[in-house]
């Protein structure tokens, strides 16, 4: 009997040695989280930066108890599909735009109001304060959680017809917009033609001439190679592209308490890393786009654009809520 036990222990030891790190890793990863987003997986893509920063942070902080799998390029679906999946618990996590979130929680339209923020500091002050906390609280009733706010940079006008210097230059130009009423109303208020379209269709639509252009942050334009098919980039800085790093509330609640805390801490740290890295990239991306052949102009006088979209604020005051809108305006105005 002793001889049999000794043989069994020896075989087990050999087996463990042969499997080595694979077995250890399998035992260490108690939980897996899948993170999706719609854009590419390059080192300079703002969505990818955030997702990868979270993976690094949470795996390190959890000592490998959590393993993160990344799904760029709409591998888990477009934003609408991912949002619904998180509500149902079939999608774990995603980097999302406010425009899609506003379809579930209308108050998220606040961050998409054109010309609400003059710079990143103003936007961060609003989202990191009571306004951002109030928005995050509202999505919990929808089965969602905002773990941190990331950013894609300021959105600008890109097209193949002409440089945009005044609202009059927008006339007749077909711009792809996010499938959100506020973006449609913004482009139409400025005199352009708004074409709502899912992100995955945009490059081909521009290439084939179905649309003339789009509005997006320069870093997204560069990383998705739009310089190959679009001529003009006009720096309107009309909308701050807020990104929410989100998790299914069902999935979050299913984690042990200590890991829930680690996920939140990791997401907060990842948000800070993502913002800093995206900002740094944004400082250099215009030179890159010029080298790639784009013609870039700065709009010297934004006042006519701001006046044209002013009615949107009054309409969305009733949707967002006066208290939330006024708090955002006051906070933004207090930051230079």
Would you kindly provide a written description of the structure presented here, covering whatever features stand out?
With 336 residues, the chain is α/β, with parallel strands linked by helices. The chain is 50% helix and 20% strand. The chain contains 13 helices and 9 strands. The chain has helices at 2-28, 46-61, 79-88, 98-101, 120-127, 130-140, 181-189, 202-208, 218-223, 249-254, 257-291, 303-320, 322-333; strands spanning 31-36, 66-71, 93-97, 144-159, 174-177, 193-196, 213-216, 232-248, 295-298. Strands 1, 2, 3, 4, 5, 6, 7, 8 and 9 form a 9-stranded mixed sheet that branches. Strand 1 (31-36), helix 2 (46-61) and strand 2 form a beta-alpha-beta unit. Helix 5 packs across helix 13. The longest helix has 35 residues, at 257-291. The chain starts with a helix and ends with a helix. Mean pLDDT is 91; it is low at 1-26.
Short précis:
The protein is an alpha/beta fold.
Task: Furnish the topology, listing elements before pairings.
Layout: H1 2-28, E1 31-36, H2 46-61, E2 66-71, H3 79-88, E3 93-97, H4 98-101, H5 120-127, H6 130-140, E4 144-159, E5 174-177, H7 181-189, E6 193-196, H8 202-208, E7 213-216, H9 218-223, E8 232-248, H10 249-254, H11 257-291, E9 295-298, H12 303-320, H13 322-333
Parallel strand pairs: 1-2, 1-3, 5-6, 5-7, 8-9
Antiparallel strand pairs: 3-8, 4-7, 4-8
Helix pairs in contact: 2-11, 5-13
